[in-house]
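Annotators were shown the component list below and the corresponding predicted structure, then asked to write short factual statements about the assembly.
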Amino acid sequence: MPRFAEAPALAGIDAGAVRRRLWSRISANLWVALALWVGSNLFTYGIANFATWEGAAHYGRMKDLCLWDCRWYQSIVEFGYFHSITEARATHPEHQDWVAVNWPFYPLFPMTASGLRKVFRLSPAGSLVLAGKLELLLAIYAFLLMLSGELETTEDRVRAGSLVAFNPYLIYAHAGYSEPLYFTLIALSFYFARRSRWLAAGAMGGLASATRVTGFLFSISYLMEWLRAQEWRLSWRALDRKAVIGLLLCPLGMALFMLHLRARVGDALAFQQAEISWGRWLGNPISTLILCFQQTRLHWPPVWAVMVIAACLVSLWLFKLGKPEMGTYLALVLLLATSTGYWSVARYIWWQPPFLYAIYRLLRRNAGAWLIYSALAAGMAAFMVLEWFSGHNFVV
Amino acid sequence: MKTALEWTAIVVLLAVYAAVGWALLHPHVSPDYRAYFIDRTTTDFEPQHYASTPEEGMEFSHAGLPSWVAATRGFDYREPGSSGRWTDANLHAPPGLTFTRTFSGESCVELKAYTIPWLGGREIPVRFGNQEQRFKLIAGGPATYDLQFHDLQAADRLEILLPSGDLPPAAEREHGSTDTRRLGLSVYSLRILPGQCAAKPS
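Structure shown to annotators:
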């Protein structure tokens, strides 16, 4: 019977064609990510050099980009988490009148830097900057993966990837901050969860929760994806144990960090308690926004408040786009970020995969809009690189 | 086998979270850590102490604490260049000092402070050990207040009982300010003198 005789041969051709299509997509994403990553590095290198010509910046080597929070990660790479305030003051004598500790900085990113330090024999600062840059490559690729069902041409991939590679706040990808690693892990978390690959999604979520304080919030999005896959019904008799394990994995990174702090410092919440040294404690996010607009001496807080409001609207729009898990995640991140004040809130917005996904969806409707957005983003990115060396703390 | 592994993983993960719950409920920290980070009654952590006497007093602009003061409560961080330290009602304790020694009998507490404008004219109690005295706040500039305490009995703590419910964030009262602290007094200095307060010249 010809039909059955043909079947095995047809199956072989189909599998091969599928593999070729898959490899073609993987290699296309890889090449685009690599090209954009090189471009992002050249951009930052160029603008940083401009800062030395006119801005009196000190930039001679890659490690000179390690400033502000990177220095705290540096202390973790060199000394681990401080056992006590006394140890912290002994390490940083300039902070005698201040209770300055590195507990608020999550461990996974400095761990990746420590690995690079051992392999390449770099300084702690250099290893952190290199780790951030390499993780930017992963972040671009992970974002392309997250959007893989919506990217058809190389042009689509370049545009999507450029949202990461030429982010207005791209300085954080080149200055030894944890943003690129966090972005990678959250993008992969959404990618795997959408495909019901629960263990992988949970593993990525667990790693994200060891990278930044907002990482554990992915547990909620995971639950939403799981419920959606079950058509919003959970059957206890037919419970998918892999999905349960994945859900339990999501906040694991934060849990292990808390246990480590309990053992080292005596307080599982030390990472949160220590924020009061920077005058940051949980408060009312609406009050934060009102304070931003009341600000008359600094210019940036009203800008950040507008960003927050725009991001809130974006999170609602994500619901309309049929991505409630992304909208929920973005909304929760904004809530947490603005509850502790307005400093650093821009990073919480611009290094979120759901936010950049919404920008992609918004801009792909209009080719002209890409040009305008790209010009504004590049301008802001260049400004941030120049100001990075200025000593002004709005860049934090 | 696979089912057993999955259930084992679930049990192990739940055990980790149970351990975290236990860790949260049982911090193992020093009293200084608890006061600074958890209870948030003080913004001094293991301050350095310098030699001084209660008669010489305490200048709040100086780093560290005098040897006769164990800790401060309810005062915000020292601002560089400032003459004093602000009280902040956001901190979970009435502003005051605890001492490394006790005071008994008669003492005169001399307090120099600047009052936030919206507290001017209010009468404020000060509790020193088992005794309490009141004084009227003068707004418009730093003022020195003398408070006479009688029959103190091993007093080791002094508290300024500001009306925390009437202290809004400074940003609500000062246009353009983003200061979220609930300020009351900026205390410049405090002396504790034995006996009677000196009579003020007329």
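Statements collected:
1. Residues 15-395 of chain A form one domain.
2. The first helix of chain A runs from residue 2 to 54.
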